[in-house]
């Protein structure tokens, strides 16, 4: 009998079973990197553009207007949202019953929260200077993200979600206290980069 036709050893069979199990689980639950990385890239691009507009001393570092920077952020977030929505839809196809219902309600909470945030910020931002108006929008959106991540962690018993919400809240609080330029810089580096690192770590752990 040639080597290619020999019977696999128990260790080899166990290794193949483990590899297939990991691959199947990842397919069913979704790739964490695919869910985290798009937001990380979007925030790095968008908030870097805002940082170049604001600067740290009130003077722009690049000839980019606030509206152009916001446009970069919004376009990047829309593209990221499309990628993440695809991943979530694929995961939801494999879940039924109570878990699926909780996921749906959690998704509606995101939509309702951001809709309310847009109404409030649209009402208040015209009363503020441009930098403070931008800080209001950015700080409010990250406050909502942090709160919903912590709520999602509690809802789904997911400590990664919960602690990432705490991290977003801490970075957002520090950035708001320091001002628009620092907020954009910290968000781009610590949250944009943090999303990517979190996706890699969760993917490796899974």
UniProtKB/TrEMBL annotation:
Keyword Oxidoreductase listed: no
Extent of the signal sequence: none
Keywords: Membrane, Transmembrane, Transmembrane helix
Transmembrane segments: 33-56, 68-88, 108-128, 134-152, 159-178, 184-202
Transmembrane helix as UniProt keyword: yes
Name by which UniProt lists this protein: Transporter
